[in-house]
């Protein structure tokens, strides 16, 4: 049995082991914690890439825990799986790649960024656990296991958000709010799991998907699952935790939190597409998701314009950009029952939405990192107090421009490519939606012009005389993200063809998903 | 078998009766200390008797059938009983002391030497 | 105003939950129990443990347990990190 | 015979619901925590009656000892 | 060292009581069980010996004291407890009370003695130990039926102190 | 006779918890609400696994020859209980920290982050 | 936190050891009787809470060391995950000891039996690992929160 | 061709766009260079003309973030006031909104069948 | 269900009835110590009831739960008492 069969579990288990080791290592050597974290996450990144290559060439992969063989899903001729399994198809590995890249860069960035804190070993341990939680949410094929990893991710997020809580009150407040909303969502997910279990006596996603009947109770379970998962992803009007949490967390954590909320988004898509698929009333649910998207886009961006805290402003933009994903995928869902329209524009819209997830993680991460760099050097997040920083932090300025251009959808950066896909396909579904999306894009540009003007432009201010360029590891992380953005912007077709399209198809085709577990169907 | 049943009835009857008294006393008495009298004494005594019934039952069934699980039942019940006897009066003492220190004075008290002593 | 909206929403939510409770399968009579019957029959021979629940917790669903222990670890690290500067 | 068991179930549930209702409506925190403890105790008894001794032990250990302890610490720290 | 061994033996005894079911050792325990028990008891002894023997008093090692303790438990203590419950029953039904908190000096010095006395008092008629003066070991007793304002020890707890002095001091 | 009463009790638990979250204005009360919802969901899972006239799924010294209740929900509930205590501990610690900086637990005053 | 009265402390001295041995019994017999790592760990953790409450946080420092707790927490989890890894020849979490005849490898009697300690494969080992983790985790939580309560409460005016 | 992204109703290629920008940019620069040649450096023509007023000090000319888009927010007051009012930052409202949305979705999913 | 089932389950039910009485004290209790006394009483009753029910079902292993509860309810009581000792506030 070669080790390559065990890659899925190694991706999760190695950061987990490192997370347990970090506090012990810290007793021996104070500096080893960060290096160990970066090492573990780089191993995880390499393994994820290897797994991605394997999955995209061979097909979906299953890993069954404790069975006599990693691919033995159904023991002794049963009709249903009894063990927990990881089930990784193109969509999972797409999200997994985002997670791996973002958390690795976050760890690199943290090497310098955490110099201001004490108790660094706990910070790194929590960062690793957050990564593990996200990987688990994305890879798992078992609904209760999903709940467990959701809890890991949210508890680790809360601990990281309130990490500065000993010195300031606001981080503790943000952490409290996030904890409450995520507990509610986790408990509702658990209640829905109970409903599923009560009806079908199954806990596996694929096995559930093959027997689900869309009865009264299934409807209630769906009605509980959609809002709580959308809330974790930050949809309006349940977005209020987002600006609090994003703005008070340390900058690299904010970047990873973006990816974490997208893991919930992934779970929402998984529930809607793979679990229910055609059995649900696709038009209604599709429109619900579209309305979420519209509200998120519009309210997010208009609230962003009036903010004066730089990270809070970006957090509202995160809400707004999440709206695009909802819009794209919602259109795809609304025409799911209609093969003609699905082929014509539905798949393209979903490609746009899914591609936007990756783009969003990249450029929003870059923007939060630049904001963190500003905070690291100036000690303030208030835009009113900033100014003229371009004189001191040239590289940061360049990275900020790249990020801002990408989020505003200026060609040739990656934001434009995915937004273009969304505009053109959504226009054929409903022109009004497309126009709204364009307006939002313009407003996004406007608010980033504001940030750029007030933070970077202007004369040298006397209070920032001591400000220097950011340390090297932080610059490295930002540079990697910028390179990814430019590469995606220049060659979007490569990504769409090789990564996004298989992901979309794995979402749409339910039979393939269930067939991976239950065998030839 | 008949003797066993009679013993069980007697023990359970006593136990339930005193537990009942404890609950009623908890309702009827006027202040914390007197309620503690009722609650601690009566319920401990009652629980001892219900547990004794189980112990007697376990040992006699073990004698009759020789099945080791009834011996385990009796032994574990003895352990539970010992725990109950140790912890109950101590808990009552802790509550009484805490009540007095938190300013709950006994009602209709003829004498209160503790208040005069002012221990801290 | 907001309180009234929330109150109405709460009542409707509650009634939906009641509906789901009533529509649930009858108490004490599970209709489908294939997976659990498999566990009850085979757990003892496959894992050698008398306690079926433990054999599920640590064998069939061991990964859940790893996650659960991790949750506890995470919470502990979080609490310690929150009070990290506090000296006695 | 089984109706006795059902009556026990019902009354356990009723006591539990009353206790948790009290935990919500009490104004002061300490009485609500005491009521929460009673609810958790009865929940443990209900698990016991539903033939889940594993869970009953866990709920007893956590609900009686530890939840109480950390709640008391919390209200001590916020006095 | 001696407290380690004693803690070990005590925990081993508890473990054996808890696990007695079937096996090759005297028909009660299996060999593996005993080995596990020894191992676990060693751990417990390591953790708990400092707590159990803080004062380093080894008075209770005399088995004679344990015999007296058992006699005390079954004889006067149980009888007093039964009386206490009759008393409580009487007061619950009639509602006649005349309470007060009185002080008694017991003359006991050891921790174990004072604890035994306080718990016995709590479980015996009409009395409940409320507080303790840590300096001179005076007990403050809530007495449900105050007959005299200056009670002697005998009023409250009969001849328990003598018994306990024989057990614990 | 008993019908679906346990499920209704579960729903009442969850409803009480949600009510606490929505209308009570003390942070520790909110933590109590979360505890109540957890209790409700745990009871729900265990109730799903109950089978009338069955015994616990443990073979050690059990009365022989009877059916057993479903074991899976018990395993799930075990997990969820421990997760619940972890969540509660973290919530309470954060609430204590909020009190340190704000001097109050009232939700109307714990809102420096708004807008 | 101040200490409680002498009676409570004396009872605690006895009950403390008893709770711990009982918790260990629950952990070690997890595969036979109700219980297991979590339950036993929680019971032992409660014992630490008991010691803390009756001796106060200053006096209990002699007996409860937070450093050792956090060490054992990490150690327990690493043991657990290593047990998972050691099945990696076949799959993660494979129960490679069950029915193998060695330690914990006895074949269980099918059906109702009085229980044999020497069965269960890696399950007893996992119980011990999880128990170690949980008991030290609860110890750390209780100690840290006690410290935090002293830190966050308002200073008395005296 | 590399970088050709099919969007269903057209295509998008960043490479072509970059090339186009380069071409147009060079044309613009070329045209600009052929412009007015009476311009001289370091004369009056160099200075900005602000309605005849003297130029402000550079230190104080930085516009702080609060004032950017003042007119925009002022004009949309009817939209912004209730929106900001909703963001109370109160934890009860957070959970309340979740329940409200859950109820709406439950009703929609339930009614539509 | 043997002949002893009824003998043990009926006292168990009665103990539950007494719990109702204690619950009334929990509702009425004017001070916190009153409520703690009610909690303590319910604890004792539940332990006794658990032993009875365990005997009724002939499930030996159930008694462990009662032992755990008997031991740990004491801790909860001590915690509340400790808090009350802190002073007359609250």
TrEMBL record, chain B:
tRNA-binding found in the keyword field: no
Secretion signal, residue range per the UniProt entry: none
Bilayer-crossing regions: 6-27, 39-60, 72-96
Pfam family, one: PhaG_MnhG_YufB
Keywords: Membrane, Transmembrane, Transmembrane helix
Molecular-function GO terms, alphabetical: sodium:proton antiporter activity
PANTHER family assigned to the protein according to its UniProt record, in alphabetical order: ANTIPORTER SUBUNIT MNHG2-RELATED
Name this polypeptide is given: Cation:proton antiporter
Organism: Candidatus Sediminicultor quintus
UniProtKB/TrEMBL annotation, chain C:
Keywords: Membrane, Transmembrane, Transmembrane helix
Superkingdom, natural source: Bacteria
Domain MrpA C-terminal/MbhE: 21-85
UniProt-listed Pfam families: MbhE
InterPro entries listed in its UniProt record: CPA3_Na-H_Antiporter_A (IPR050616), MrpA_C/MbhE (IPR046806)
Stretches that traverse the bilayer: 69-86
Keyword Transmembrane helix attached: yes
Signal peptide per UniProt: none
Cross-referenced PANTHER family: NA(+)/H(+) ANTIPORTER SUBUNIT, NA(+)_H(+) ANTIPORTER SUBUNIT A
Protein name: MrpA C-terminal/MbhE domain-containing protein
Native species: Candidatus Sediminicultor quintus
Automatic annotation (TrEMBL), chain F:
GO CC annotations on file: plasma membrane
Transmembrane residue ranges: 6-23, 30-50, 75-99
Subcellular location: Cell membrane
Pfam families (alphabetical): Oxidored_q2
InterPro entries, per database record: CPA3_antiporter_subunitC, NUOK/Mnh_C1-like
Membrane-topology annotation of the record: Multi-pass membrane protein
Alphabetically ordered keywords of this record: Cell membrane, Membrane, Transmembrane, Transmembrane helix
Family from the record: Belongs to the CPA3 antiporters (TC 2.A.63) subunit C family.
Protein's name according to its UniProt entry: Cation:proton antiporter
Automatic annotation (TrEMBL), chain G:
Occurrences of domain Na+/H+ antiporter MnhB subunit-related protein (ranges): 7-138
TM segment ranges: 12-32, 38-58, 70-94, 122-146
GO CC terms in record: plasma membrane
Key words, A-Z: Cell membrane, Membrane, Transmembrane, Transmembrane helix
InterPro entries found in the cross-reference section: CPA3_antiporter_subunitB, MnhB
This protein's record includes keyword Mitochondrion: no
Membrane topology: Multi-pass membrane protein
Location in the cell: Cell membrane
Pfam families: MnhB
Family as reported in the entry's similarity comment: Belongs to the CPA3 antiporters (TC 2.A.63) subunit B family.
PANTHER family registered for this protein in UniProt: NA(+)/H(+) ANTIPORTER SUBUNIT B (PTHR33932), NA(+)_H(+) ANTIPORTER SUBUNIT B (PTHR33932:SF4)
Entry protein name: Sodium:proton antiporter
Organism lineage: Bacteria, Pseudomonadati, Atribacterota, Candidatus Phoenicimicrobiia, Candidatus Pheonicimicrobiales
């Amino acid at each position: 049995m070669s080790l390559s069969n065990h890659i899925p579990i190694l991706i999760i288990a190695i950061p987990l082991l490192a997370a347990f080791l970090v506090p012990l290592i810290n007793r021996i050597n104070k500096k080893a914690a960060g290096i160990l974290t970066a090492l573990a996450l780089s191993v995880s990144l390499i393994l994820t890439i290897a797994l991605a290559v394997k999955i995209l060439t061979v097909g979906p992969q299953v890993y069954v825990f404790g069975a006599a063989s990693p691919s033995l899903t159904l023991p002794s001729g049963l009709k249903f799986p009894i063990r927990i399994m990881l089930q990784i198809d193109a969509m999972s590995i797409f999200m997994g790649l985002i997670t791996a890249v973002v958390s690795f860069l976050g760890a690199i960035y943290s090497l310098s960024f955490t110099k201001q804190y004490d108790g660094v070993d706990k910070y790194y341990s929590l960062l690793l656990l957050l990564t593990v939680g996200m990987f688990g949410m994305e890879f798992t094929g078992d609904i209760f296991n999903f709940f467990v990893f959701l809890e890991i991710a949210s508890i680790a997020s809360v601990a990281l958000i309130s990490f500065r809580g000993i010195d300031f009150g606001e981080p503790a407040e943000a952490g409290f709010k996030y904890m409450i909303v995520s507990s509610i969502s986790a408990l509702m997910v658990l209640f829905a799991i109970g409903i599923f279990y009560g009806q079908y006596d199954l806990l596996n996603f694929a096995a559930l998907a093959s027997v689900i009947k869309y009865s009264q109770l299934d409807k209630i379970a769906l009605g509980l699952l959609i809002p709580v998962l959308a809330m974790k992803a930050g949809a309006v009007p349940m977005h209020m935790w987002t600006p609090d949490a994003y703005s008070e967390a340390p900058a690299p954590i904010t970047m990873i939190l973006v990816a974490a909320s997208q893991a919930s988004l992934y779970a929402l898509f998984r529930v809607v597409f793979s679990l229910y698929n055609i059995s649900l009333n696709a038009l209604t649910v599709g429109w619900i998701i579209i309305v979420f998207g519209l509200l998120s886009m519009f309210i997010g961006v208009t609230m962003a314009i009036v903010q004066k805290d730089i990270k809070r402003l970006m957090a509202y933009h995160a809400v707004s950009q999440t709206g695009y994903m909802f819009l794209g995928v919602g259109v795809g869902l609304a025409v799911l029952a209609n093969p003609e329209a699905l082929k014509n524009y539905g798949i393209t819209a979903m490609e746009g939405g899914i591609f936007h997830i990756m783009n969003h993680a990249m450029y929003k991460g870059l923007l939060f990192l630049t904001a963190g760099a500003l905070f690291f050097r100036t000690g303030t997040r208030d835009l009113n107090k900033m100014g003229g920083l371009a004189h001191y932090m040239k590289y940061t300025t360049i990275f900020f421009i790249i990020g801002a251009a990408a989020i505003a959808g200026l060609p040739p950066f990656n934001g434009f490519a995915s937004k273009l896909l969304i505009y053109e396909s959504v226009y054929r579904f409903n022109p009004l939606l497309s126009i709204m999306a364009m307006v939002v894009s313009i407003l996004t540009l406007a608010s980033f012009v504001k940030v750029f003007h007030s933070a970077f432009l202007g004369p040298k201010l006397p209070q920032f005389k001591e400000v220097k360029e950011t340390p090297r590891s932080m610059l490295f992380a930002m540079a990697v993200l910028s390179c990814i953005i430019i590469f995606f912007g220049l060659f979007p077709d490569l990504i769409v063809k090789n990564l996004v399209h298989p992901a979309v198809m794995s979402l749409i085709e339910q039979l393939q998903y269930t067939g991976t577990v239950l065998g030839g169907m | 078998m008949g003797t066993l049943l009679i013993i069980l009835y007697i023990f359970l009857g006593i136990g339930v009766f005193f537990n009942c008294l404890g609950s009623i006393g908890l309702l009827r008495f006027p202040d914390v200390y007197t309620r503690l009298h009722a609650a601690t004494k009566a319920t401990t005594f009652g629980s001892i008797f219900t547990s004794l019934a189980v112990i007697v039952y376990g040992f006699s069934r073990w004698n009759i059938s020789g099945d080791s699980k009834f011996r385990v039942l009796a032994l574990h019940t003895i352990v539970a009983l010992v725990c109950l006897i140790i912890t109950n009066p101590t808990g009552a003492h802790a509550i009484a002391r805490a009540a007095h220190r938190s300013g709950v004075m006994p009602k209709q008290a003829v004498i209160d030497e503790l208040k005069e002593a002012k221990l801290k | 105003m907001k309180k009234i909206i929330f109150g109405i929403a709460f009542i409707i939510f509650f009634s939906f939950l009641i509906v789901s409770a009533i529509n649930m399968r009858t108490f004490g009579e599970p209709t489908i129990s294939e997976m659990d019957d498999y566990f009850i029959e085979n757990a003892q021979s496959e894992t050698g443990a008398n306690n079926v629940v433990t054999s599920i917790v640590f064998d069939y669903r061991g990964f859940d347990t790893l996650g659960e222990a991790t949750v506890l670890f995470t919470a502990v690290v979080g609490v310690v990190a929150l009070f990290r500067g506090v000296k006695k | 015979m089984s109706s006795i068991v059902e009556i026990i179930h019902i009354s356990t549930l009723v006591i539990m619901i009353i206790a948790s209702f009290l935990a919500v409506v009490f104004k002061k925190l300490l009485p609500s925590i005491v009521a929460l403890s009673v609810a958790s105790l009865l929940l443990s008894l209900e698990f016991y009656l539903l033939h889940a001794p594993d869970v009953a032990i866990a709920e007893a250990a956590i609900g009686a000892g530890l939840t109480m302890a950390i709640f008391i610490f919390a209200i001590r720290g916020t006095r | 060292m001696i407290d380690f061994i004693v803690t070990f033996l005590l925990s081993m005894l508890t473990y054996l009581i808890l696990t007695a079911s079937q096996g090759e050792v005297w028909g009660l325990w299996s060999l593996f069980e005993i080995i596990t028990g020894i191992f676990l008891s060693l751990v417990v002894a390591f953790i708990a010996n400092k707590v159990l023997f803080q004062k380093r008093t080894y008075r209770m090692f005399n088995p004679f004291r344990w015999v007296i303790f058992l006699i005390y438990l079954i004889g006067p203590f149980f009888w007093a407890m039964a009386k206490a419950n009759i008393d409580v029953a009487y007061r619950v039904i009639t509602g006649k009370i005349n309470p007060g908190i009185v002080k008694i000096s017991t003359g006991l010095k050891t921790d174990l003695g004072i604890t035994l006395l306080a718990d016995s008092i709590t479980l015996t008629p009409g009395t409940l130990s409320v507080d303790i003066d840590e300096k001179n070991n005076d007990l403050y007793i809530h007495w449900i039926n105050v007959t005299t304002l200056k009670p002697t020890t005998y009023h409250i707890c009969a001849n328990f102190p003598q018994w306990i002095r024989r057990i614990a001091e | 006779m008993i019908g679906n009463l346990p499920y209704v009790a579960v729903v009442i638990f969850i409803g009480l918890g949600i009510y606490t979250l929505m209308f009570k204005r003390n942070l520790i009360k909110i933590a109590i609400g979360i505890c109540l919802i957890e209790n409700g969901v745990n009871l729900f899972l265990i109730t799903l696994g109950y089978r009338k006239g069955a015994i616990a799924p443990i073979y050690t010294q059990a009365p022989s020859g009877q059916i057993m209740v479903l074991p899976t929900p018990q395993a799930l509930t075990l997990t969820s209980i421990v997760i619940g205590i972890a969540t509660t501990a973290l919530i309470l610690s954060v609430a204590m920290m909020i009190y340190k900086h704000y001097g109050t637990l009232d939700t109307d005053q714990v809102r420096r982050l708004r807008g | 936190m101040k200490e409680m009265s002498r009676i409570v402390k004396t009872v605690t001295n006895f009950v403390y050891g008893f709770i711990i041995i009982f918790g260990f019994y629950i952990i070690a017999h997890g595969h036979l009787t109700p219980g297991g790592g979590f339950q036993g760990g929680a019971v032992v953790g409660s014992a630490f809470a008991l010691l803390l409450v009756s001796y106060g946080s200053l006096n209990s420092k002699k007996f409860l060391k937070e450093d050792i707790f956090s060490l054992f927490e990490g150690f327990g989890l690493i043991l657990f995950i290593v047990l998972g890894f050691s099945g990696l020849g076949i799959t993660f979490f494979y129960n490679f000891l069950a029915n193998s005849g060695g330690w914990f490898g006895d074949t269980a009697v099918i059906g109702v039996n009085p229980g044999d300690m020497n069965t269960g494969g890696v399950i007893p080992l996992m119980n011990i690992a999880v128990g170690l983790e949980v008991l030290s985790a609860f110890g750390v939580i209780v100690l840290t929160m006690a410290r935090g309560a002293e830190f966050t409460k308002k200073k008395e005016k005296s | 061709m590399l970088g050709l992204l099919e969007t269903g109703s057209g295509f998008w290629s960043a490479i072509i766009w970059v090339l186009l920008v380069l071409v147009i940019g060079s044309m613009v620069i070329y045209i600009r260079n052929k412009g007015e040649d009476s311009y001289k450096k370091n004369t009056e023509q160099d200075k900005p003309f602000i309605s005849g007023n003297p130029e402000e000090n550079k230190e104080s000319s930085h516009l702080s973030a609060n004032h950017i888009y003042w007119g925009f927010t002022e004009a949309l007051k009817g939209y912004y006031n209730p929106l900001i009012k909703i963001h109370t930052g109160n934890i009860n409202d957070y959970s309340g909104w979740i329940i409200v949305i859950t109820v709406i979705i439950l009703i929609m999913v339930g009614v539509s069948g | 269900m043997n002949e002893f089932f009824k003998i043990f389950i009926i006292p168990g039910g009665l103990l539950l009835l007494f719990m109702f009485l204690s619950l009334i004290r929990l509702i009425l209790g004017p001070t916190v110590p009153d409520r703690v006394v009610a909690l303590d009483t319910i604890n004792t009753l539940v332990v006794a009831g658990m032993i009875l029910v365990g005997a009724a079902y002939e499930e030996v292993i159930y008694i462990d739960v009662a032992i755990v509860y008997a031991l740990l309810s004491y801790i909860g009581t001590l915690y509340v008492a400790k808090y009350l000792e802190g002073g007359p506030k609250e």
